[in-house]
Design a protein that fits this description.
Elements: E1 2-3, H1 11-15, E2 18-26, E3 32-34, E4 40-44, E5 48-56, E6 64-81, E7 86-91, H2 93-96, E8 103-104, E9 120-124, E10 131-139, E11 144-146, E12 162-177, E13 183-199, E14 209-213, E15 221-222, H3 239-242, E16 244-249, E17 255-258
Antiparallel strand pairs: 1-13, 2-5, 3-4, 4-11, 5-10, 6-7, 6-8, 6-9, 6-12, 7-16, 12-13, 13-14, 13-15, 16-17
Length: 266
Amino acid sequence: MGCVQSGSCKPRFCDSITVLELNASIDQNPTTIDESSDVVLRYRTPYFRASAQVLVPPVLKKEIWTVGWIQACNQMDFFNHYGNEGLSSWELSDLRAGHVAALSDSDGVSYPWYGSTSEIFTVVGPTRRDTQLTVSMNDNFHPSVTWSVPIATVGSPAQLTGIRRDQRFTTWLVARNEGSGEVTLLRTLRWRMRVRIDVDPCQPLGQRAQLLEPLLQEQPQVLPKNEPIPLNALDKPNANDAQMLIWRPSSAQPIMVIPPKYTPTP
């Protein structure tokens, strides 16, 4: 733990912010599959959950400190296979090309925070007493995948044969001085979510998909030493706005089906 940016932060105050309790887990239940729609297959992964109790000492000055969660996506492999026709892929182009090591996983509004409700707690100084607070967050995937290839016309037959997904995230518990922008890293977590589903499109609706693995996800890691937060994890774009859907046919050039929502400002 320690201050990681220059500014007016007094190290003794930063070092006295204490994590009393930290819990991080992924629910111990398998990904569920929903075939109720004749247009899309839906699935829902178990939740990643993190919660921390933090003790902030008295803030003697007119300072504002925010304690909360910041998350970044480090890897996104998300492929939907359509037999010999090809595959579709949700992609983060800068991450895929290796131009950045991570992208913000903020809600797209509360940068750099993962969210603005239970995910953060603000302490407004001056305060006379210690402030004991709790911040919590959760995350999971609940996508819809078309039964037919993404560029098919309405009413095309089901051709989906499999889904493969593997994503990795780093999540930081952070205290930030809102005046100076100074950041104190309290804890660093890593977690991963994987999905492998096989699909037989020839079967009747409701009997097509089968979860192969994992039945239970790997549990998150609390790192023994904090890792610095990449700049890309603190600002736009967030992963949801940067992702795009690409159709990669077996015998033709890739086609962008859904472009990214985020357009950089010149």
